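Quick one, probably user error.
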């Protein structure tokens, strides 16, 4: 019962974090708009794009906004369909990484066998989807079954240590988005994502980098939404310090005024 209570608490925390994240994105965009010569907009677009589009000296670039260094840096979903790990196309770098390691992982293989048995499904012909549509298939593990399964179990099915997450996250935001994001505001630090600098900001801005664990977890949403998602948890354990920031109230330098 303790594990289940902790599980529910974690899901509620994720929901509250999503609301807080939206609020922080708006605060950052509003702060940028208070600065001279730069414009920040939060267009209503899908998660295939980053959070804020910046316009500076007639140039445009995307900015990814994270509340803190401990925020998840990428969460594209994967599914178990057709007896293999798969994801919606196109396969961005994080999806490819996740599918590759899930396919090789003994821990993930054991989980698949266990959940199929628990659900009373054919272990060679069942679906574990991250989409509501596939969840309607007769051989999909039902939402309630999966929620019951995790009452006394850890929801992580993959954990790889010492991964170069800076490199993986950089590829995710530059290659995996509909339009590349070359900048990130994480907590009170402003970074370049990769080494391109399309807005011509100061060359001494720190570049996003660092290592950490790459994890995959089953996120079981509330009974009201009644679906689940298989998603990565990507958190860099030690991001570099940046002398620049766009956080409201910061005492650091403004990259647009340097």
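Nope, works fine. Designed sequence:
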């Amino acid at each position: 019962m303790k594990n289940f209570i902790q599980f529910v608490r974690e899901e509620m925390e994720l929901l509250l974090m999503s609301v807080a994240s939206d609020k922080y994105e708006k605060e950052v965009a509003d702060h940028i708009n208070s600065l001279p010569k730069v414009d920040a907009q939060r267009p209503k677009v899908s998660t295939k794009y980053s959070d804020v589009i910046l316009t500076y000296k007639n140039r445009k670039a995307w900015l990814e906004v994270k509340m803190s260094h401990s925020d998840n840096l990428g969460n594209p979903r994967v599914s178990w369909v057709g007896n293999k790990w798969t994801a919606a196309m196109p396969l961005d770098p994080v999806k490819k990484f996740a599918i590759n390691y899930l396919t090789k992982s003994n821990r993930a293989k054991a989980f698949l066998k266990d959940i199929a048995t628990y659900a009373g499904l054919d272990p060679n012909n069942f679906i574990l989807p991250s989409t509501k549509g596939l969840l309607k298939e007769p051989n999909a593990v039902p939402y309630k079954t999966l929620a019951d399964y995790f009452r006394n179990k850890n929801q992580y099915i993959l954990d790889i240590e010492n991964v170069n997450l800076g490199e993986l996250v950089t590829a995710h935001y530059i290659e995996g988005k509909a339009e590349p994001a070359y900048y990130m505001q994480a907590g009170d630090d402003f970074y370049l994502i990769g080494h391109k600098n399309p807005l011509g900001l100061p060359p001494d801005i720190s570049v996003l980098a660092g290592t950490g664990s790459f994890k995959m977890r089953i996120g079981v949403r509330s009974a009201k939404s009644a679906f689940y998602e298989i998603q990565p948890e990507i958190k860099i354990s030690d991001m570099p310090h940046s002398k620049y920031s766009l956080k409201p109230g910061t005492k650091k330098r403004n990259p647009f005024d340097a």
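Residues 32 and 40 are 6 Å apart (CA to CA).
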